[in-house]
């Protein structure tokens, strides 16, 4: 990215002052190397978001930002309904509520090492991954609607999990305001056989070792110590969320026109929050959030069943579950005034700081866990929300490393078999249905996750708590 | 109907996702080739047996929206039927598109699907006639 037009605020904050049509500035977080490495499209898209009606304070790009559609991935923007603010399907993304949850195991590596291959095989056998894989659960229309209303709470009621899990999930496992009737029959049909499936692309289930602790106090509150093994699950709302994204993006093309909203980019299609389409989308999107929460809950249950067979000493307790692609109605302090805003986080994690009433008591003093995903061979991180993040980004942080190489370039650079063998030499077992899929997702195709989380920490978006290294990865 | 000599498809680079592009003597043919490019995101189209036929219909105000709708209709059919498609025919008349896709149920061992497609996006969405007279139909798909 050409940074000539950006004003450098500090070592990790860059600002594009409002240009033609921009209501607010665009602010990019990251060290100079990360920002320079971002595609020019990130700045163009962040600036376009700043042109949408009712945007408040600034359009933000997180340190892992890259070219998305409409909004950059890693884009954060808040809108005020009373000021004509909009909701944008492209500002949420196709995979609604794609996110990460991390489970503690109570195990250390020596307990797992002798059965590592067995564990990898058992997880791969029991967790449906990749295209064409179906879960064992088939929901009828009534069941689908109950799931869309109830989220992880519904899943726990059905026997897929434990009641204590719910406190450790954003929205306590159930997004209020879901309207299954706003979800099309096609979207529901697409989901019918996909409950409890992991999907493909960058989605995974990993067994990870806590390799380094940066903040002992927060680590203690989170229940993690160096050498502990955890399990992280990265996936989203599957076909239902994808179909909702597709359909409402299409519908919002017409809505934007109807309300006279000038779209700098077709992908920025949006509708006023108070409009019929806006409200319909919010109801459908919240149903998709519940779908993602239910899906991760079922996958957790399947994971627990595998551990119960292979490592019965394990106790898989949920640390936390965070979502990346959402629009949530939240209270934030803007210029000293408390305002209720619709915060879009696309490829960005909510990072509530200490004292937010929505957080479980265990995180009252630390802020919420912010779970940052890696890519098979690269580290993942656990961060904690900060009070400062409130003013910096509506309490948001990065969500992963972000790609630095296209899928084509990745397949030209690596072969899947070779990636799997090299990772095996480092003690990381990969199980995947596709060599090409593994090559496309090779660790080297992603930005340096260390640099991304360091920048998030130093910019004040969230603070470093722990680094996790993978030992087993089930890759879709 | 056989494809013209100019019919072909390709992928183009996008950092996070992947671009699909079809060329043909007519928009119909370019759309059909773009669909082949879509299939090739998932697996080698040559590995797909075209034994089953699925028909789709879409309506759209312009050719570009019609392309996104056509590809999204295929994404939907692949998802709910658990199929992959290896051959296509498209007939666009006025604002209505009728398409046929031939394929088979996905076989993970034979097709080795690399990735599933979430949806066709409006990013880099273009349907236009190039200087040489060839039609080009393209967009980025979210994977």
Short description:
The complex is a heterodimer of chains A (476) and B (143). Chain A has 476 residues and is of the alpha+beta class.
Layout: helices, strands, pairs:
The complex is a heterodimer of chains A (476) and B (143).
Chain A: E1 7-10, E2 13-16, E3 26-29, H1 32-37, H2 40-49, E4 55-66, E5 73-79, E6 86-88, E7 99-108, H3 109-112, H4 116-126, H5 141-157, H6 185-191, E8 204-213, H7 216-222, E9 228-235, H8 238-258, E10 270-272, H9 276-310, E11 317-323, E12 326-334, E13 337-346, E14 349-350, E15 369-372, E16 380-385, H10 388-393, E17 396-397, H11 407-413, H12 416-425, E18 429-431, H13 435-440, H14 449-459, E19 462-475
Parallel strand pairs in A: 3-4, 18-19
Antiparallel strand pairs in A: 1-2, 2-3, 4-5, 5-13, 6-10, 7-9, 7-11, 8-9, 8-19, 12-13, 14-17, 15-16, 16-19
Helix pairs in contact in A: 4-9, 5-9, 6-8, 8-9
Chain B: E1 8-13, E2 18-24, H1 27-42, E3 52-59, H2 63-81, E4 83-93, E5 96-105, H3 108-111, E6 119-120, E7 126-129, E8 135-142
Antiparallel strand pairs in B: 1-2, 2-8, 3-5, 4-5, 6-8, 7-8
Helix pairs in contact in B: 1-2
Task: Describe the protein.
The complex is a heterodimer of chains A (476) and B (143). Chain A has helices spanning 32-37, 40-49, 109-112, 116-126, 141-157, 185-191, 216-222, 238-258, 276-310, 388-393, 407-413, 416-425, 435-440, 449-459, and strands at residues 7-10, 13-16, 26-29, 55-66, 73-79, 86-88, 99-108, 204-213, 228-235, 270-272, 317-323, 326-334, 337-346, 349-350, 369-372, 380-385, 396-397, 429-431, 462-475. With 476 residues, chain A is an alpha+beta fold. In chain A, the strands form four sheets. In chain A, strands 7, 8, 9, 11, 15, 16, 18 and 19 form an eight-stranded mixed beta sheet that branches. In chain A, strands 1-2-3-4-5-13-12 form a seven-stranded mixed beta sheet, sandwiched between helices. In chain A, strands 6-10 form a two-stranded antiparallel sheet. Chain A is globular. The model of chain A has no long low-confidence stretch (mean pLDDT 95). In chain B, 27% of the residues lie in helices and 39% in strands. In chain B, strands 1, 2, 6, 7 and 8 form a five-stranded antiparallel beta sheet that branches. In chain B, strands 3-5-4 form a three-stranded antiparallel beta sheet, covered by helices on one side. In chain B, a hairpin with a 2-residue loop joins strand 4 (83-93) and strand 5. The mean pLDDT of chain B is 93.
